[in-house]
Amino acid sequence: MSEPAGDIGLIGLAVMGQNLILNAADHGFTVVAYNRTVSKVDHFLANEAKGKSIIGAHSVEELCRNLKRPRRIILLVKAGDAVDAFIQQLLPFLEKGDIIIDGGNSHFPDSNRRYDELKEKGIYFVGSGVSGGEEGARYGPSLMPGGAEEAWPHIKDIFQSISAKSDGEPCCDWVGPAGSGHYVKMVHNGIEYGDMQLITEAYDIMKRIGGFTDKEIGEVFSQWNKGVLDSFLVEITRDILLYDDVDGTPLVEKILDSAGQKGTGKWTAINALDLGMPVTLIGEAVFARCLSSLKDERVRASKLLPGPQIPKDAVKERQQFVDDLEQALYASKIISYAQGFMLIREAGKTYGWKLNNPAIALMWRGGCIIRSVFLGEITKAYRENPELENLLFNKFFADAVEKAQSGWRKTIGLAVSYGIPTPAFSTALSFYDGYRSERLPANLLQAQRDYFGAHTFRVLPEAASENLPADQNIHINWTGKGGNVSASSYQA
């Protein structure tokens, strides 16, 4: 009997799976391909995979039989029950030390569970974020693997070979333990929600306040893509705005203004609330999509609810208007990434994960949807200080936001005065102003909580006295009528 030839197996021959297989074959790896509908395997081998180092399997057993040890198997199937079902099908044909890699968009708690369950059986589980869409999978995605670190030496060469490259470095490195790879992919998708919302707000401001045509806005994005905003999403926005339908009118104008979502942005916002992290921009981006889906209500509201009229000459200096908007977009993007890394940092503390922050930024430099030039500066910032508390504490980003402030504030002020919604721009600035405030009005809020619910408060160290001692939870009988018994929790 001949020795197994397969370097890696892949289950799931949808677009992403097929392209990832072709990518791996191009880099000299022999891939064993399997799909639940086995006719897809034969069709793939006879067409796209013809002549390449790709072996077809017609059963899970055949897939495993054709793989070198330790067996390395990537699942690119729909997140949820399908992943668990395939894992159960694989287990009878695996041995201790074999590796199962979930490359789908799984929720990180599921990856935590699978990591623990497979660890008990001696199987190494890796949950890997994969970003970059169809083109990324074919020519170089961003890969974010995490889980059983023992698996990394066995998959490192394959993963780093097929990943995108940035300045010669692979956009793939080990993230951390358990479900951390899928966690980082979740935050990536959340930031993607924020970036897209910011771009649409800039588009809306130019269109409604500036009176720009779609072609003119497309040219603005074209110019922005040559500077600090150089990124994949700015690039595709340019292409979209310059694309005409067959009748010669911009296709974007014919698209229903009701946005869909698959849930990863919502997962990020919920997790931020669970961890007590103010990831406000991603949250607003999710809510903006929810608001957009209320199309019928918005149509009725547009006829009932008044707002300011926008004069035709609202913008006197077009270039200054565009420059201010560019700075608003740039500063808001910085805030979004700062919030994203705050969340990742807190997750590391909460879940006991030692995370590779410089590598995470590098993984996002190329291949993925949020790839942009300034991610190089984020990589640099974390390489200089892996324990960096906040991106805004790095000189490059602090200086960039300081320079952008005037245009940022003017842009939001203009939008507010003319009734243009800017939830992402506005929350980014509100976060910045809150973060830089030595004192916030939460002192009054704590007093209110103690007044109505005896939830207690603490006093400022400099204001401590005999009747208001420091470092103690204090309850005051505010009216003289209530009791002196406080609630059990300061955080309630």
UniProtKB/TrEMBL annotation:
Catalyzes the oxidative decarboxylation of 6-phosphogluconate to ribulose 5-phosphate and CO(2), with concomitant reduction of NADP to NADPH. Keywords: Gluconate utilization, NADP, Oxidoreductase, Pentose shunt. NADP(+) binds at residues 12-17, 35-37, 77-79, 105. Residues 181-479 form the 6-phosphogluconate dehydrogenase C-terminal domain. It catalyses: 6-phospho-D-gluconate + NADP(+) = D-ribulose 5-phosphate + CO2 + NADPH. The keyword Plastid does not apply. Substrate binds at residues 105, 131-133, 188-189, 193, 262, 289, 449, 455. Belongs to the 6-phosphogluconate dehydrogenase family. Its EC number is 1.1.1.44. It comes from the Eukaryota. Pathway: Carbohydrate degradation; pentose phosphate pathway; D-ribulose 5-phosphate from D-glucose 6-phosphate (oxidative stage): step 3/3. GO terms for biological process: D-gluconate metabolic process; pentose-phosphate shunt, oxidative branch. This is 6-phosphogluconate dehydrogenase, decarboxylating. The active site is at residues 185, 192. GO terms for molecular function: NADP binding; phosphogluconate dehydrogenase (decarboxylating) activity. Homodimer.
